[in-house]
């Protein structure tokens, strides 16, 4: 599957200068949505900039699709306001709102050709026939399917159908593109390829885009910013790097990527006690003696091999700041790295999962049963109030 050929409304090339300030395009304030006694969305506030690609990310039932449908007017909010391009659209019917939408199921008309599917919105808008034909031709070229116009949806693959659904959504040149889990019905290889193509298309056209997904990798790779949702509220908004590296809650830390969660006790302003050892961590503001959950990502743990050192060497290394002696319990080969499960059975039965490079495993002869010392960098060790990271 080749990349999309994009020629329309291209942005200037990035010259390395500071990016120009964007204008606020979509503003959501104090939005609530109730279905009977069930509160699906609570106090949602969000601003989306013009040309931005936003991903609503969260587990099933968190409210992300409900929020997308409220923006589209398909399930209007119970209260609160939505403003698009300076216009209050809170009470506008769906037909009067300026957006295109792509669904998980493609939602193509099976009895219409590909050309007619793409032309559908243009025909309803009363565009001249010659303009419609040219627009359809341009869009088929844009999505890399110039020779498929006379076919019917059933004659195309899933990835091709989703491309056509995307072409139909942008045919009328809407100001806002809404994507409701557009890739989840596709197989893994096609999904990875198409997400890069969608992102390239969005960047070239400069269209403000909101995508709903439950796939972490998809959200992190595509979004300019991520909106992490849980139980009808927004847990955190930030760039992919911010959300991954600086989670604002235990839920976000647990939901985004892999995260070790270690029972611990807060000490001072930037210390934590784990299995009787005091380590330095990020500043936390928790009370001394509070029960907490210490978190660190598997890839942030640094192994120190013992090798042929003297019997007391492991004790010497473990006395260094933020180092813990451990034993390798299990190892799993995952292609580009090894996932190791480490235990500290002599001090509270702590379990930590770590990602070690193939070279590190080979160099240190890391294997099940081997003793190691691991270092946990202080700026990667973060504390959260002890509690369930529900989702």
What does this protein look like?
The protein is of the alpha+beta class. The chain has 2 domains: about 25-100 and about 175-250, 3-Layer(aba) Sandwich (Rossmann fold), CATH 3.40.50.300; about 260-385, RNA polymerase II/Efflux pump adaptor protein, barrel-sandwich hybrid domain (OB fold (Dihydrolipoamide Acetyltransferase, E2P)), CATH 2.40.50. The chain contains 10 helices and 20 strands. A 6-stranded mixed sheet has the order 6-7-8-3-9-10, with helices on both faces. A 5-stranded antiparallel sheet has the order 13-12-11-14-20. Strands 15-19-16-17-18 form a 5-stranded antiparallel sheet. A hairpin with a 2-residue loop joins strand 9 (about 225-230) and strand 10 (about 235-240). Helix 2 packs across helix 3 and helix 2 (about 115-125) packs parallel to helix 4 (about 160-170). It is elongated. Residues about 1-20 and about 305-315 have low confidence and may be disordered.
Rg estimate, integer Å = 26 Å
Q: Could you describe the largest sheet, including whether it forms a barrel? A: 6 strands, mixed
CATH fold-level assignment of the largest domain:
Rossmann fold
CATH architecture of the largest domain: 3-Layer(aba) Sandwich
Question: Which percent band covers the strand fraction?
Answer: 25-35%
């Amino acid at each position: 599957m080749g990349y999309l050929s994009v020629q329309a409304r291209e942005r200037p090339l990035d010259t390395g200068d500071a990016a120009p300030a964007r204008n606020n395009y979509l503003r959501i304030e104090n939005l609530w949505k109730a279905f009977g006694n069930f509160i699906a969305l609570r106090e949602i506030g969000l601003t989306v900039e013009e040309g931005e690609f936003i991903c609503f990310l969260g587990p099933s039932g968190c409210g992300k699709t409900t929020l997308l449908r409220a923006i589209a007017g398909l399930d209007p909010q119970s209260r609160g306001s939505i403003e698009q391009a300076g216009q209050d659209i809170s009470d506008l019917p769906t037909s009067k709102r300026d957006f295109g939408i792509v669904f998980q199921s493609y939602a193509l008309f099976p009895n219409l050709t590909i050309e007619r599917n793409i032309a559908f919105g243009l025909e309803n808008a009363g565009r001249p026939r010659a303009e419609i034909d040219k627009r359809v031709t341009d869009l088929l070229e844009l999505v890399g399917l110039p020779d498929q116009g006379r076919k019917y949806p059933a004659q195309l693959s899933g990835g091709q159908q989703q491309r056509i659904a995307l072409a139909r959504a942008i045919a009328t040149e809407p100001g806002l593109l809404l994507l409701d889990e557009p890739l989840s019905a596709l197989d893994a290889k096609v999904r990875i390829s198409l997400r890069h193509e969608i992102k390239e298309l969005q960047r070239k056209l400069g269209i403000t885009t909101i995508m709903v997904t439950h796939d972490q990798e998809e959200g992190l790779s595509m979004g300019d910013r991520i909106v992490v949702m849980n139980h009808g509220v927004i847990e955190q908004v930030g760039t992919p790097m911010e959300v991954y590296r600086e989670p604002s809650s235990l839920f976000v830390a647990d939901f985004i990527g892999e995260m070790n969660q270690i029972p611990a006790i807060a000490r001072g302003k930037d210390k934590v006690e784990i299995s009787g050892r005091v380590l330095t961590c990020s500043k936390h503001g928790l009370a001394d003696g509070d029960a907490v959950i210490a978190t660190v990502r598997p890839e942030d743990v640094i192994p120190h091999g013992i090798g042929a050192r003297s019997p007391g060497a492991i004790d010497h290394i473990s006395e260094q700041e933020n180092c813990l002696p451990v034993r390798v319990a299990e190892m799993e080969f995952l292609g580009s790295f090894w996932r190791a499960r480490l235990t500290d059975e002599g001090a509270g039965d702590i379990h930590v999962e770590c990602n070690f490079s193939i070279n590190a495993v080979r160099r240190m002869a890391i294997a099940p049963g081997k003793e190691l010392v691991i270092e946990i960098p202080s700026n990667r060790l973060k504390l959260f109030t002890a509690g369930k990271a529900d989702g």
